[in-house]
Write a structure and sequence with these properties.
With about 450 residues, the protein is α/β, with parallel strands linked by helices. It contains ten helices and 26 strands. The structure holds flavin-adenine dinucleotide. Flavin-adenine dinucleotide binds next to α1, α2, β4 and α8. The site of flavin-adenine dinucleotide has 33 residues, from α1, α2, β4 and α8. It is an enzyme of class 1 (oxidoreductase).
């Protein structure tokens, strides 16, 4: 009977422990979680703030008791792993209820500590970040008890955009600032124009190339020289991996604190695995390392690690495609493949179409902008991006499947679309990309 210790009880950690239990009824599995909650739906949090998602039981389906009853896995919340001794195969844990420290032995150690929000570090009571349900509760409480109206959202990554939309839908008055012109960085910058249009259509104020230089009470001073009053500030300025506690061990971290893993999600130390936002891995379709801090990767790794430890050890990860998607008011922004900033490392060509998402005569149509980048020599698809009110998710998911199978841009002519007027075209946008690429 193995002793399996897991660090982090949310997307990667709780999923991996559950997957191991599915395959192995006997091992002793214990998860240490430094914060209050386990296994909550991180991706739901912006929608909880907007009151779009109201059922707390669906967002937080487990507590340690329920989890143990269902899976016989022990979860210790408010227990932080502060160091790892990989020679002795132990972790040192602090129980934050009692401040007591103890060592726990492991046969296998699984690290899924995720990432923390970067902070602007102003000494202020009105600044918040959003990473977990405690943060969500704190934001909600502050809004309710402080008559919050004007909220400054700092940063325009996908979480900030979701938060801004949800604050607006809740009836508050958000303002967005971003320190450069490069908003929503996973999307091609010229395809982000609908973000600006959606803001302007709703009279939501925004400023690019803007930063906070000081916060004094509710008075905020900006780099531009402007001074404005806000009731609350939500900082969405990126994250860093939670790997400080690993530094004293022999586990190799890169210079940004990420753990680099192999295709079995093993670290450089036998029997120690890592997954989720803390790892770097590689792309599936091109020869580049990458870090994709999104939920699919954590779930896929959880299954593969469980197979390694408790099942079929021949299963390996084939790499990321980097699929991602965000809703911003009426629009969807989705892409797959290398990031726009990585394109310069390739000799590529690009084909795009911008036309109705479904048959033009059928009501409710809106235009969909679809763009595919392919390697000039091999003609393999290296990136695709789609922006529109309808059908962006479908096109990117189809192209993700194409990329998973190393299809070329020319192969897209053969994609047999499920067609009826409300959904697509007999010659779909994806087919059009294939036909258009023939002149390249
Ligand atoms: C607001 C928000 C919205 C998101 N929306 C999406 C989305 O729409 N789509 C998508 O694909 N992804 C989304 N994500 C990203 C996704 O949630 C993460 O990629 C995923 O949760 C990563 O899983 P993880 O296990 O690595 O980290 P987490 O799920 O963050 O879990 C890590 C846990 O480890 C704990 N921990 C850290 N250090 C220690 C320690 N030393 N000892 C004990 N416990 C420790 C932390 O407290 C944390 O609870 C979103 C994330 C957030 C915050």
């Amino acid at each position: 009977m193995s002793k399996i210790v897991v660090v982090g009880a949310v997307a990667g950690g709780a999923t991996c422990a559950s997957q191991i239990r599915r395959l192995d009824k006997d091992s002793d599995i214990i998860i240490f979680e430094k914060d209050r909650d386990m296994s909550f739906a991180n991706c739901a949090l912006p929608y909880v703030i907007g009151n779009v998602v109201n059922d707390r039981d669906l967002v937080l389906p487990y507590n340690p008791e329920k989890f143990y009853d269902k899976k016989e896995i022990t979860v210790k919340t408010y227990h932080e792993v502060i160091s790892i001794n990989d020679d002795k195969q132990t972790v040192t844990v602090v129980n934050h209820h009692t401040n007591e420290q103890f060592e726990e032995y492991f046969d296998y150690l699984i690290l899924s500590p995720g990432a923390s929000a970067n902070r602007l570090n102003f000494d202020s009571d009105i600044t918040f970040t959003l990473r977990n349900l405690e943060d969500t509760d704190a934001i909600d409480y502050y809004i309710k008890h402080n008559n919050v109206q004007r909220v400054l959202v700092v940063g325009a990554g996908y979480i900030s955009l979701e938060v801004l939309e949800n604050l607006y839908e809740r009836g508050l008055q958000p303002t967005l600032i971003h320190r450069s012109e490069q908003i929503n960085k996973l999307m091609d910058s010229d395809m982000n124009q609908p973000i600006i249009d959606e803001l302007e259509r709703r009279h939501i104020s925004y400023r690019l190339n803007e930063e906070i230089t000081n916060i004094n009470g509710n008075e905020i001073t900006f780099k531009s020289g402007k001074i404005e009053n806000y009731d609350m500030v939500i900082e969405g300025i990126g994250t860093h991996p939670n790997s400080k506690f690993i530094e004293g061990s022999n586990i190799t971290l890169d210079n940004k604190g990420f753990i680099s893993v192999n295709d079995k999600f093993e670290t450089n130390i036998p029997h120690i695995y890592a997954l989720g936002d803390v790892i770097t891995s590689h792309y599936r379709h091109v020869d580049l390392t990458t870090n994709v801090p999104l939920a699919w990767g954590a779930h896929r790794a959880a299954s593969i690690i469980a197979e390694q430890i408790a099942g079929d050890s021949s299963i390996e990860f084939k790499g990321f495609l980097g699929s991602n998607i965000v809703k911003f008011f009426d629009y969807t922004f989705a892409s797959v493949g290398i990031k726009p900033s990585e394109l310069s490392q390739f000799d590529y060509q690009m084909v795009e179409v911008n036309q109705g998402a479904h048959a033009n005569y059928y009501p409710g149509n809106s235009s969909l902008h679809l763009r595919v980048y392919f390697d000039t020599a091999s003609r393999q698809i290296i990136r695709a991006a789609a922006v529109g009110k309808e059908g962006a998710d479908k096109r990117i998911d189809v192209l993700s499947m194409a990329m998973m199978n190393n299809l070329t841009v020319d192969d897209l002519t053969e994609f047999e679309v499920a067609y009826a007027p409300p959904y697509s075209h007999p010659k779909d946008l994806i087919n059009m990309i294939g036909y258009k690429s023939q002149s390249h």
